[in-house]
Amino acid sequence: MESKRQQKFASLLQQDLAAVFQRDLPHLFPGLPPGISTVRISPDLGVARIYLSSLLASNGSTMLEQVRDNSKIIRQALAKRIRKQVRIIPELVFFLDDSAAYAAHMDAVLGTLDIPATTPEDANDPKTEDKGPAARPKLFADEDE
User: Fold this and answer.
1) Which Pfam families match (predicted)?
2) By CB neighbour count within 10 A (0-12 exposed, 13-18 middle, 19+ buried), where does 63 fall?
């Protein structure tokens, strides 16, 4: 579980990295800049694990390689933005966030399931009608019903 300090720092990094991708370094990413879905910070605030979403990008792996190749430039641009707020600029480690692709896959799997729908006729069918609560078993021989 992350501490409040880690959460605040992760939020700061997420906002500033998005600004770096969109405003400071748009020339590195032709088309749409990568989206940042999650930022996780180590307890010593020295390493930031950044998960990039590839919803709008056509190929996520090429986008990830492009970001990893330019990670030094990205870290320098981030340092210019947050240098007055933090002591140490964290090392940036980028990962591809495939949770949206997984959700789409699970949606497709659930869409192919054949689940019979219950209809109002089934509710009135005497075969499926509820008989009420089950009878209570007798615990003692002299117990009356």
Assistant:
1) RBFA (PF02033)
2) buried
pLDDT at 131 over 60: no
Rounded to whole angstroms, how far apart are CA atoms 67 and 37? 15
**Angle in degrees, 0-180, between the axes of helices 71-82 and 4-19, rounded to the nearest 10:** 110
Among the listed residues 83, 97, 75, the one whose alpha carbon sits nearest the alpha carbon of residue 20: 75
For residue 11, count other CB atoms closer than 10 A to its CB. Answer: 12
Q: Which CATH superfamily is domain 4-100 in?
A: K homology (KH) domain (3.30.300.20)
Q: Is the pTM of this model over 0.85?
A: no
**Chain segment 32-43, per-residue pLDDT in tens:** 888 899 999 999
| Distance (Å, whole) CA 71 – CA 79 | 12
